[in-house]
Specification:
Helix content is about 30%, strand content about 20%. It is of the alpha/beta class. The chain has a single domain (about 10-205), classed as Maf protein (Alpha-Beta Complex), CATH 3.90.950.
Length: about 210
């Protein structure tokens, strides 16, 4: 699938932190990006059973509503000792009763459940990312997955990144994503892993 020369690519997210990361990864390809919120798009209910399901439905809806190619991401943190939770419910763990997201509250919940699992419970976790890119003319979509492994720490450290970043130390590092320079995070993250696969597909389409 080629989206090159399509004018603009809709980034189907209302999460400002996620939007910044995706734009930083995609604009070097020479593709102009516009966020879903800027276009006044609704935020669809994530009713899928997997990260790919949710990314796919968000990308297809944005492409259908705008007539532009759309890229959507669904990502989350999966904790080994919590049987992969919060997983696809990552953002919902941060929601309060008013629909706002409080990530400190979400991190406290994760750590509380880890402590309840006992002192021997593994602190291993990974971030997973699924990307879906959909084109409006035929409703077709392609999918790309990425992952980064690491471990959880408490208390949270750093004010960079977003979400669970301040409590996640990627394998091979001694700093959290919340402490890490954004350029380095963009190089090693689950989202970067998925984007490398997307870029390879775009470059293959461009050269064919």
């Amino acid at each position: 699938m080629s989206i090159l020369g399509a004018g603009k690519l809709v980034i189907a997210t209302h999460n400002p932190g996620k939007l910044r990361e995706i734009i930083a990864l995609i604009e070097p390809l020479g593709i102009a990006c516009v966020g879903a919120e800027e276009l006044g798009l609704p935020e669809p209910e994530e009713i899928g059973n997997t990260f790919i399901d949710n990314a796919d439905l968000k990308a297809r809806e944005a492409a259908d509503l705008t007539g532009l190619p759309a890229l959507a991401d669904d990502s989350g943190m999966c904790v080994d000792a919590l049987h992969g939770r919060p997983g696809i419910f990552t953002a919902r763990w941060a929601e309060d009763g008013d629909g706002n997201r409080d990530w400190m509250r979400a991190m406290e919940r994760v750590w509380r459940e880890l402590e309840a699992a006992g002192p021997e419970a593994s602190r291993d976790a990974h971030f997973a990312c699924a990307l879906a890119i959909a084109r409006p003319e035929d409703g077709q979509a392609e999918h790309f997955e990425g992952r980064v492994d690491g471990a959880l720490v408490w208390p949270p450290r750093g004010d960079r990144g977003f979400g669970f970043d301040p409590m996640f130390v990627p394998a091979g590092y001694d700093v959290t994503f919340g402490e890490m320079d954004p350029d380095e995070k963009h190089r090693i993250s689950h989202r970067a892993d998925a984007f490398r696969k997307l870029v390879d597909a775009l470059n293959a389409a461009r050269s064919s």
